[in-house]
Amino acid sequence: ETDFRIGPFAALEGYGLERTPDSLRLALHWSSRGSTSRDYTVFVHLRNEEGRVVAQADGPPLNGDYPTSRWASGEAFVGHRVLDIEALPSGRYDVSVGLYLLETGDRLPVQTGTGQNVEGDAISLTEVTLP
After folding, report:
1. Range 80-106 burial, b when 16+ CB lie within 10 A, else e
2. Neighbours of 119 (CB within 10 A)
3. 77 and 83 Cβ atoms separated by less than 8 Å
4. How large is the greatest C-alpha to C-alpha distance in the chain, in angstroms?
């Protein structure tokens, strides 16, 4: 179970990961804990062992159909992201996620469910190993 607070209005409460030969398909389980007047962008990054981003899937939540400025407190929904891994070499990779403001690149602060700040304001979901 995942339990992270993102900024004053969002939470990531879980995820699903499906691996195909050429992609990682993520289902991100969001909930709204408040409201915002801003539209934030979701980022999903795949980092190699050196910490470099080698694949990413950034974009508005729910493919732009439901921007964060319209989220109402208490709602829950699932957003999907796909990372292309076809050209990546064998190795271990970290999958991370968060929200940022597209205009500035500023990430929303992330805390664990117990109130601990998360370094880099990016939630490390899981590690994957590619053959």
Report:
1. ebebebeebeeeebbbbbbbbeeeeee
2. 8
3. no
4. 44
Neighbouring-strand partners of residue 109: none
Phi, psi of 127 (to 5 degrees): -110, 140
Separation CA 93–CA 56 (nearest Å): 12
Q: Tell me the per-residue pLDDT of 19-48, one tens digit each, with 9 for 90 and over.
A: 999 999 999 999 999 999 999 999 999 999
d(CA 52, CA 45): 9
Residues in Cβ contact with 101 at an 8 Å cutoff, skipping those fewer than 6 apart: 38, 40, 41, 108
Residue reference for tokens 């970290």: 94
Nearest one of 55, 121, 129, 57 to 93, comparing CA atoms: 129
* Chain-centroid distance, C-alpha 74: 19
Q: pLDDT tens across 55-73, in order?
A: 999 999 988 899 999 999 9
Amino acid 109 reads P
Model pTM score = 0.93
